[in-house]
Each structure stands twice: as structure tokens, then as C-alpha cells.
Predict the 3D structure of the following.
Amino acid sequence: SQQGEEDPQALSIQEGENATMNCSYKTSINNLQWYRQNSGRGLVHLILIRSNEREKHSGRLRVTLDTSKKSSSLLITASRAADTASYFCATLLLGANSKLTFGKGITLSVRP
Amino acid sequence: ETGVTQSPTHLIKTRGQQVTLRCSSQSGHNTVSWYQQALGQGPQFIFQYYREEENGRGNFPPRFSGLQFPNYSSELNVNALELDDSALYLCASTSAGKDTQYFGPGTRLTVL
């Protein structure tokens, strides 16, 4: 079963624009993570935000977490063609022994 | 590169056959998780191994089984293959108590 649901399902933007992706989840979490996947290959970890954090930055990435609304957003600033990929949010539930629960993902296309 | 390797890259089997997929974890990691990713979906947790013992299992039937070896590498075995087993199989390694998982490139299994 999918814990997280990302929206939109697909996003197409121009290079240089910002991309905002949202994720909602259902149950209490330990942390929430965002991953990137290129062309159906392995997942690359982007950023992790813990349940007691509200915002985190890493380079061009900014992630927010609202535990009262059970939602998170990932902002990629100044997007590049190389950012074209699928993005997944994944939640680590309390007491889940590192088991990640993923959403269905968002397909981001960045046009040169 | 995450340092996690998987073999083979691609595999074609017929319904009813058995398959073994292999994963070498990143150096220093003692925990391996396996995920199944159907086309257009997010990864689904199959099971996790820690110090050669199964340490959590998702909603998969017993014909999905695994092993972890003393060097922390791991195998995923699937018996009596069904058409719906066609998917990308991902393994991820981490250290116990750490939340970030490092994924391999995956094995693409096609069941005909």
C-alpha cells in the first residue's frame, strides 16, 4: 500500500524556473525523505527531514514538513535539464525498522 | 554511485520458474532491504535483513524469500514466478539506526 501521495503526477517547466512538488501521507512518521529516479533505475537520496523539523535546505533543494497537515513539499530552484527525473517521497513510520513507504512519484520534465 | 551493486541487470523468465537476484551492500552497511517497483508505481517494501536475520516483511507471499550472508551481501529468491512479478527489484543498504538508505541500480525482471 502507498503511504504517500505526491502531486502533481507530472510537471513540465522551463529551465531556470522553480519546481514545487507536494506529498501527503496518512500516519505518524519518524521522518520523510525525497528520492530521485532517472529512467527507471536506482533511487538517489536527496534530502531527509525529521518529524520535529519544519524546513531544510540542501543546495538548490528546499523541503518543508507540516505534520499537522501530514504534508511535505520539495522545491527545486533554478531547475536544469538534468533535473528531469521521477521524484518520490518516502516516509519512515515510527518503529518501522528502516522500512520506507513510497508514494507513486512525480515525473518532472525540465525543457532546455 | 552509491556503492551498492546488483546482478543481473536484466532477466527474462517464464511463468512458474524460480529466480535469484543478488545485491552487494555498501561497505560498512549491515542492513539490506529489498523493494519491488512495478511500472509507473513507487517501490514497495518486500523485506529487510539485519545481521543475517529477517527484520521486517511487507505484504508479499512466502514465495518471496531472502538471505543475507556474513559479508552482508544479500539474495532475493522468488519461486513459482507469476506475470505480475515483472518489475524492477531494488535493494538498499544502510547501517543499523541510520535512516538514509542507499539504493542499487536495480534488476529488471520480466516474466513471460
Summary: The two ends of chain B are 31 Å apart (CA to CA). The interface with chain A takes residues 2, 4, 31, 33, 35, 37, 39-45, 48, 50, 55-56, 58-59, 88, 90, 92, 94, 98-106, 108 of chain B (CB under 8 Å). DSSP finds no helices and eleven strands in chain B.
